[in-house]
Write a structure and sequence with these properties.
The complex is a heteropentamer of chains A (about 80), B (about 625), C (about 230), D (about 500) and E (about 120). In chain B, helix 15 (about 370-380) runs antiparallel to helix 17. In chain B, strands 5-6-7 form a 3-stranded antiparallel beta sheet. Chain B has a two-stranded antiparallel ribbon with strand order 1-2. In chain B, strands 3-4 form a two-stranded antiparallel ribbon. Chain B is built from 24 helices and 7 strands. Among the domains of chain B are: about 285-485, no CATH class; about 590-618. Chain B is mainly alpha-helical. In chain B, a hairpin with a 2-residue loop joins strand 1 and strand 2 (about 60-70). A two-stranded antiparallel ribbon of chain C has the order 1-2. Chain C is globular, with a radius of gyration of 22 Å. Chain C starts with a helix and ends with a strand. Chain C has one domain. Chain D is mainly α and about 500 residues long. Chain D has one domain (about 5-490). In chain D, about 80% of the residues lie in helices and about 0% in strands. Chain D has 21 helices and 2 strands. Chain D has helices at about 5-25, 25-30, 30-55, 75-100, 105-125, 125-145, 150-180, 185-195, 200-215, 225-230, 235-260, 265-285, 290-310, 315-345, 355-360, 360-375, 385-395, 400-430, 445-460, 465-480, 480-489, and strands at about 55-60, 70-75. In chain D, helix 14 (about 315-345) packs across helix 20. Chain D is globular and about 70 Å long. Chain E has one domain (about 5-55, about 75-110): Orthogonal Bundle (Helix Hairpins). In chain E, about 65% of the residues lie in helices and about 0% in strands. Chain E contains 3 helices and no strands. In chain E, helix 1 runs antiparallel to helix 2 (about 30-50). Chain E starts with a helix and ends in a 13-residue tail after the last helix. The chains are: A mainly alpha (about 80), B mainly alpha (about 625), C mainly alpha (about 230), D mainly alpha (about 500), E mainly alpha (about 120). Chains D and E meet through helix 6, helix 7 and helix 10 of D and helix 1, helix 2 and helix 3 of E.
């Protein structure tokens, strides 16, 4: 169990670092979406199904959608 | 006559004047004169009274009290009379200028605030009125715009520094004694440690010294006096700066007490001697700076600084004669300096604002009455016998010589010589010499201007001939401070230490006059020669080219100018520059880049945590 | 350079926080308040989901504030985007494939229903007004993606927002006058545990929240997609 | 029984109504904030006497304190809520004529919610609830700063938002640490469990919370957003931000440090920090040529002064600090309102462009002058008694250190006086080139300014009107045990 | 291993916080900054939830009648996080709207190029 959790945390942090590194904003947003999704799974492991649902539906889905819309209306790449 | 009513009339009058100005200018003018006259009458009716009335239950737990005694009456009457004359003078001077309602209202407000200052019975109300006086003065000094803005700014900053020092002093006293009423504080001070008293004296000294423009706090005065409207310059120079004198008298002799004051000092250096020396410096430097001024008002302004030096010298020297001399000189200075500022005002009024001494001249033909009052004023300023200035200066010289202070005596005398130089320049460059062509058809000064000037010049002579009138009042004040009485007679002072009798002088002067008249009569009749005949050999030369008042005292100036820079003032200006530079540098931390701001936030957090972990001081 | 300094700062802060975390051992039971809620939630609020009873019962005021925050953000977003002026329209989103738009016709009501289910059963199962609202908003998002021209009925959305918010406040105020006379007090009958119509005001509030959050988030998406030239 | 919860619920309900009212009439929407503020003002003033005797603790939802959320309406809370309502009322009157363009309905709604957030912060007795209301306050500020939608507004809003959001995140971490350490969120309950902040965990929590709240409170290194935001927002919003928002932020910091953490050992640090904030604010303002930016920096300075006074933590100084809050709200809001129309007429933010305003807008200039006098601390205006109290209480403390520090405070006041009086000179005495026609601010705006003027003068002359409230406020802040007792006991 | 056992969630949470802060600190692109904020928020939420966790606990829902209250995790942090998530999304939405406006006004998302307000 702890191994799985550790791997998930590792993956989550890696995704966050990816969000830091990517110069393509869309990729960065996807990475941060991944962070949210992994976090949502971790919430589930932490016995917080309500929060997991909220994080998945709001943090992962909706926020990503808003980000994508905003990026479409601005610029995709960091200069 | 209740003191509260007096102040209500004063402050309410100021407000009403402004409102009336919205209705009709004439009504407003009449009302302003009426109010200022009423104040004179009310103050006069308080003569010889001494009482206190609480008028405000507790301002943040500190009750406010009004009181009157001899000292405050003297200053109150001077303030109200000068104020009244200044309002009358303004009737003509301010005609046709803009924002006159504001001007009158502020003038009355300054007068009201001054009355408040001298009638205060506790330090907090003193401070409150002091501040009201400061900001209303600021507004009036800035009134003219242009260079007056810088002057007003300088005044405000310096006087604000002073007031805040005073505030610190007042509140320290409150912290120590729990009361701010003069009597209570005085009782507490008598048992306070010398260091404490000294600290209080220094704090208040900054405030009073700034207002009184003693060196090195004088820098605001010359620009402020010269840029303010002339009737207000008269008030400013005549009475407003004397609020500093009032403060010093109150502080030294009422609150600290004569004995404590004289014994105060660090080691062998006595505080009151230091103050006297500062007074002497204040006489010497400004006097010689005044000689080289080409602006009539600026000249008078520097002269004011110098005369203030006499007053400080007198009252801080601390003998009964010197203090009486100092107080009397305050009164005299108020009279003749106001008179002289009004003279300049009248000239300015007729010449459309010209007060450059190089371009005036010969106005004696156009403004004879003004010239006569100017002569009287200048005589008072120099201290010619039988004018009031003589008596007060004489008292000061006398005590300095008697008490064996050669340096101070020399400084005072030297200052008088300088005074003669600049006074003559003032008189000559305005009234004597060539009349420039553009002033050929100038009119006399209007009545509303002549009246106050005449009254003041009469007072100059009256106090010179009968010094006993004011000296009697001053003597009772001195006695209340704990000095010995001066034995005043209407003609002078009868005691051994300071014998003075104007009757002798009067006789001497009369005899001299008769002799001189005889001499002149016995000689040949004078012949009048055209100027062009003797200077241009009859050739037709434009008269303005012969304006020989230009660059008066030029050689002297070349000799002394390098030593007469106002170092204090340039230091202040540099200080102001530094502050601005500091602010300009500091605001660069707000770089505009949000990443830096985020950095600040994290740095702050990290420093907090680091300090706690490393040293855990909290 | 900036990154280095940043890392140093973060290290310092990290050490501080790390030391603090030592005092909060992970996974140890510690709070009385949590225990109290778990013990008494069913009795106090009638909800079997303790998180819901905390969110809409014990700490309902927070939730009122939270709904307000979202309201503020939606309004603010509208204000920020509206000041650009100009005519409104939408571009940049290509028409979706037939499958998506056709599927959406069936999917849309289903998702809405699902959202409604989530917020009406908030007191029984995981989920609640926020999650349900988000689901409803994502249904609208789907609509926007599949048919770019479609727009939310703005006045309807804002009406829903306001009215559902008002319902929340009104319920709170009714608590002040009814029952125990406390603001947001649960003055309705609590019913039997584990049934849909139980827990007093909680489902009512959660419905209001669900509608409000749904319409607000949909409005946010709508506003953001709106192109102003 | 009037409950303090009405102070939050009713305006919140009305705020939700604004969009509905706006559908009927856009103009009518502007009056809703007026009504709500008036309601709050009346309720606050009605509750004040009650609160002076004993603080009202309202348990929301009927759950006893550590379990439910409580509102704590003590003298400080009531005072500030009355102040918020007063400023809110006046500024909303002003906005009736000032805010003409843009999505006005949204403006009025956001404005009301800002007030609700501020009121919530001062009334709440729960740490997390504080966070929530804090967010309402901040988010509505971000949006309102960008309301005009010009370059400056957008830029300022973006910067403000980034710093503010960072602050909120830190605040939330701090709250999480607190909950982890003490297992409760109720302020009084936490306070009862904290003896000192010596231990690193408690200190770190406090540091995080102070930094998080400090961003809004304009404490020195955290205040970089302030000059931008306050100078770029519409003037009515600048008035509220300067007059209310940052003071509420400071209140939150003080409440946390004094009541929750009882951190008396840190206070000396805050004295220095306050002084530093004061000096930097005033010095930066001194070097400004942009009038609104100058006012904004002056707000930083004033916050520093208030913090300085509060951190001395004697009854007198805290009274003085609270008094200074009141005086700063009234004066700075007045200044922003007056400057709003002056800038509107002159069309430029440069101080030099205000030349001749004394003639063009005499009443507005007069109000401006009163505000300046009051802010600088000249009698007989409200700034005088407040500064007097601060200086008095600082001098009453023994010790050379405070006396030196108070010297620096007075020095900063001189700088403040210098730059403000420069503006006064510009407004009245500079000779302007062309004579422009006299055109004062609209009557509604003038009315609102003169309401402030009236308060400034009346309280300036009769400070005893509010000193009772302030003093019991001071003892509320200083006596932690009473707070804990009245909530839990 | 026991270290991981004790701290893996904390590490995850504060790792996200650190990365979020780092993004805000070093990046100049506004949208990137907002992504950083979102990651920061997620980290904070994770921290809150891990504070409330009780080892071998169950979700605080009495979904079946027989459940014992003893082993349930603390519901309070979960309630807080629900609120925090919504607040986070509110800030993000507003921030993105501002970013859109910012881009329209300045033609760039680089915050270094927007330094008109300074000093």
């Amino acid at each position: 169990m702890i191994i799985i959790v550790s791997l998930l945390v590792l993956a989550m942090l890696t995704a966050a670092v990816a969000a830091l590194i990517y110069r393509d904003l869309l990729s960065a947003v996807i990475a941060s979406c991944l962070v949210s999704l992994l976090a949502s799974i971790l919430f589930f492991f932490l016995q917080a199904p309500d929060v997991a649902m909220a994080e998945a539906s709001i943090g992962a889905a909706l926020v990503t959608a808003i980000f994508v819309i905003a990026i479409r209306r601005t610029k995709r790449y960091e200069e | 006559m209740s003191l509260g009513l007096l102040l209500i009339v004063a402050f309410g009058g100021s407000l009403l004047t402004y409102l009336l100005g919205k209705v009709s200018a004439r009504t407003r003018d009449a009302f302003a004169v009426l109010i200022s006259l009423a104040l004179v009458v009310m103050v006069a009716s308080l003569y010889g009274k001494a009482f206190r009335v609480p008028f405000y239950g507790g301002f943040l737990g500190m009750p406010l009290v009004l009181r009157i005694d001899g000292l405050s009456w003297l200053f109150a009457i001077a303030a109200s009379v000068l104020g009244c004359l200044s309002v009358v003078f303004s009737l003509g001077y301010m005609k046709g200028k803009e924002r006159t309602s504001f001007y009158y209202s502020m003038l009355l407000l300054v007068i009201a605030a001054m009355l408040g200052v001298v009638l205060s019975g506790d330090l907090l109300s003193l401070f409150i009125f002091w501040e009201i006086m400061s900001w209303s003065t600021f507004l009036l000094i800035s009134y003219n715009g242009g260079p007056a803005l810088a002057a007003g700014m300088k005044y405000f900053v310096m006087s604000f520094v002073g007031s805040l020092a005073m505030l610190a002093g007042v509140l320290t006293l409150h912290g120590s004694f729990g009361t701010l009423e003069f009597t209570g504080v005085a009782a507490g001070m008598s048992s306070a440690s010398p260091g404490y008293v000294l600290a209080i004296l220094v704090l208040f000294g900054v405030a009073f010294g700034t207002k009184n423009a003693i060196w090195p706090f004088h820098a605001w005065l010359p620009p402020a006096h010269s840029e303010a409207p002339s009737p207000f310059s008269a008030v400013l120079s005549g009475i407003l700066i004397k609020m500093g004198v009032y403060g010093f008298l109150l502080l030294m002799f009422v609150i600290v007490g004569l004995r404590t004051f004289l014994s105060l000092g660090v080691g062998r250096i006595e505080f009151h001697t230091v103050l006297s020396i500062i007074g002497a410096i204040t006489i010497l430097l400004p006097t010689f700076i005044a000689i080289f001024q080409n602006d009539a008002k600026r000249l008078l302004a520097w002269s004011t600084v110098a005369q203030a030096g006499y007053i400080i010298l007198g009252i801080s020297f601390g003998t009964s004669l010197s203090v009486a001399g100092g107080m009397f000189h305050f009164l005299n200075h108020a009279v003749f300096k106001a008179l002289l500022f009004m003279v300049v005002g009248a000239v300015e009024y007729r010449t459309n604002g010209v007060r450059d001494l190089d371009s005036l001249g010969g106005l004696i033909k156009r403004m004879p009455v003004t010239f006569i009052v100017a002569v009287i004023g200048v005589c008072g300023l120099i201290g010619v016998p039988l004018t009031n200035g003589f008596v007060s200066k004489w008292l000061i010289y006398k005590t300095l010589i008697l008490e064996r202070s050669p340096f101070l005596a020399f400084a005072a005398l030297f200052g008088t010589w300088g005074t003669i130089l600049y006074s003559y320049k003032f008189l000559h460059n305005i009234f004597l010499g060539q009349l420039p062509q553009r002033y050929e058809d100038m009119e006399r000064a209007p009545f509303t201007m002549l009246l106050p000037m005449t009254i003041l010049s009469v007072v100059v002579v009256l106090f010179g001939v009968l010094p006993g009138i004011p000296l009697a009042v001053i003597d009772t004040i001195g006695v209340s401070f704990g000095f010995e009485s001066l034995h005043v007679t209407p003609w002078g002072i009868a005691s051994d230490t300071g014998a003075l009798n104007t009757v002798n002088m009067l006789v001497a002067a009369l005899v001299g006059l008769v002799v001189v008249w005889c001499v002149f009569r016995s000689g040949a009749r004078s012949v009048s020669v055209g100027q062009a005949d003797s200077y241009a050999a009859g050739a037709a030369v434009p008269r303005d080219k012969y304006q020989y008042s230009v660059r008066f005292y030029a050689p002297l100036r070349r000799m002394m100018a390098p030593y007469l820079k106002d170092f204090v003032d340039s230091f202040y200006m540099r200080l102001a520059g530094w502050v601005r530079g500091l602010g300009d540098g500091l605001r660069r931390i707000y770089t505009g880049y949000v990443g830096d701001y985020v950095m600040y936030i994290l740095v702050f957090l990290a420093v907090l945590i680091f300090v706690q972990i490393a040293w855990s001081p909290w | 350079m900036r990154a280095t300094v940043g890392l140093i700062l973060l290290a310092v802060i990290g050490v501080g926080v790390g030391i603090s975390l030592l005092a909060i051992p992970f996974g140890a039971p510690k709070t009385e308040i949590g225990d109290y809620y778990i013990e008494n939630a069913r009795e106090d609020t009638g909800a079997t989901n303790v998180v819901t009873s905390v969110v809409v019962g014990y700490r309902a005021f927070d939730t009122l504030g939270e709904v307000t925050v979202l309201f503020v953000a939606a309004l603010g977003l509208g204000a920020v985007l509206a000041t650009a002026g100009g005519k409104r329209g939408r571009s940049g989103v290509e028409p979706a494939s037939l499958i998506l738009s056709a599927g959406n016709i069936f999917l849309f009501p289903l998702i809405l229903l699902f959202g409604a289910y989530i917020f009406t059963h908030g007191h029984l199962t995981p989920g609640g007004g926020f999650q349900g609202g988000a689901v409803i908003a994502s249904a609208f998002l789907l609509v926007y993606l599949s048919s770019p021209g479609k727009r939310i009925n703005e006045s309807g959305a804002s009406l829903t927002e306001s009215v559902s918010g008002l319902v929340f406040v009104a319920i709170g105020l009714l608590g002040l006058t009814h029952g125990t006379h406390y603001f947001l007090a649960n003055f309705l009958p609590k019913g039997a545990l584990n049934t849909l119509f139980s827990a007093g005001i909680i489902p009512v509030i959660y419905c209001a929240i669900g509608l409000k959050v749904g319409s607000e988030l949909a409005g946010v998406v709508d506003n953001l997609m709106e192109e102003t030239e | 029984m009037v409950s303090p919860v009405l102070l939050l619920a009713v305006p919140l309900g009305l705020a939700l109504c604004v969009p509905l009212v706006g559908r009927v009439s856009r103009r009518a929407a502007g009056f809703v904030p007026v009504i709500a503020s008036l309601f709050n003002l009346v309720v606050s003033i009605r509750l004040l006497p009650t609160v002076l005797e004993e603080p009202i603790v309202a348990n929301l939802g009927g759950f006893p304190p550590p379990f439910g959320i409580t509102l704590f309406a003590g003298p400080v809370g009531m005072l500030l809520s009355a102040l918020i309502a007063l400023a809110g009322l006046v500024v909303s009157l002003y906005a009736l004529s000032y805010i003409k363009t843009g999505p006005t309905v949204r403006y009025h709604t956001l404005y009301m919610l800002l007030l609700v957030g501020a009121t919530g912060v001062v009334l709440t007795g729960d740490v997390f609830n504080l966070f929530v209301f804090f967010e309402i306050l901040c988010i509505s500020s971000y949006a309102l700063v960008a309301y005009v939608g010009d370059r400056a507004g957008i830029e300022a809003s973006v910067k403000y938002l980034i710093q503010g959001a960072l602050g909120s995140a830190l605040l939330l971490i701090g709250i999480g640490l607190l909950y982890g350490l003490f297992g409760t969120l109720n302020m009084a309950d936490i306070a009862a469990r904290i003896d000192s902040v010596d231990s690193v965990p408690v200190f770190v929590a406090m540091a995080l919370i102070v930094v998080g709240l400090g961003v809004e409170a304009a404490i020195f290194p955290l205040n970089a957003w302030l000059p931008d935001a306050h100078s770029s927002a519409p003037s009515s919003i600048s008035a509220i931000l300067s007059g209310i928002a940052i003071q509420v932020g400071l209140y939150a910091v003080v409440r946390m440090v004094f009541t929750v953490f009882g951190a008396s050992s840190v206070l000396l640090f805050f004295v220095f920090l306050g002084l530093l904030t004061l000096l930097i604010g005033e010095l930066c303002a001194f070097a400004q040529n942009n009038i609104k930016r100058m006012l904004a920096y002056s707000s930083i300075g004033q916050m520093g002064l208030i913090m300085f006074a509060l951190a001395i933590a004697t009854t007198g100084s805290v009274t003085g600090g609270l008094f200074q809050m009141v005086s700063h709200t009234l004066s700075k809001a007045l200044l922003f309102l007056a400057v709003g129309y002056m800038v509107y007429r002159s069309g430029s933010l440069e101080i030099s462009s205000l030349e001749g305003m004394g003639r063009r807008m005499p009443l507005t200039s007069f109000a401006f002058t009163i505000g300046v006098f009051s802010l600088v601390g000249l009698p007989p205006f409200i700034g005088f008694p407040s500064k007097l109290l601060i200086v008095r209480s600082a001098l009453a403390e023994q010790g050379v250190l405070l006396q030196v520090l108070i010297g620096l405070v007075l020095l900063a006041t001189v700088i403040e006086g210098a730059y403000f009086f420069r503006v006064i000179q510009t407004v009245y005495f500079k000779k302007e080139e062309g004579q422009e026609a006299r055109q004062d601010a609209p009557p509604m705006a003038l009315l609102s300014m003169f309401v402030f003027v009236a308060f400034i003068v009346v309280i300036g002359v009769y400070p005893n009107l509010i000193t009772d409230v302030l003093e019991s406020g001071a003892s509320e802040l200083l006596e932690r045990a009473n707070y804990i007792g009245s909530v839990l006991g | 291993m026991s270290f991981l056992h004790d701290y893996v969630y904390y590490i995850g949470a504060f790792g996200l916080v650190a990365i979020g802060l780092l993004i805000i600190l070093v990046k100049r692109n506004l949208i990137k900054l907002i992504i950083g904020l979102s990651i920061l928020d997620t980290g904070v939420n994770m921290f809150l939830i891990s504070v409330g966790y009780i080892r071998r606990g169950t979700a605080p829902i009495f979904s079946r009648p027989g459940l014992e209250p003893d082993g349930m995790v603390d519901p309070v942090p979960q309630a807080l996080v629900l609120t925090a998530i919504v607040i986070g999304v509110a800030i993000l939405a507003l921030a993105l709207a501002l970013a859109v406006r910012f881009y329209k006004t300045y033609g760039t998302l680089d915050l270094r190029k927007a330094k008109e307000l300074r000093w």
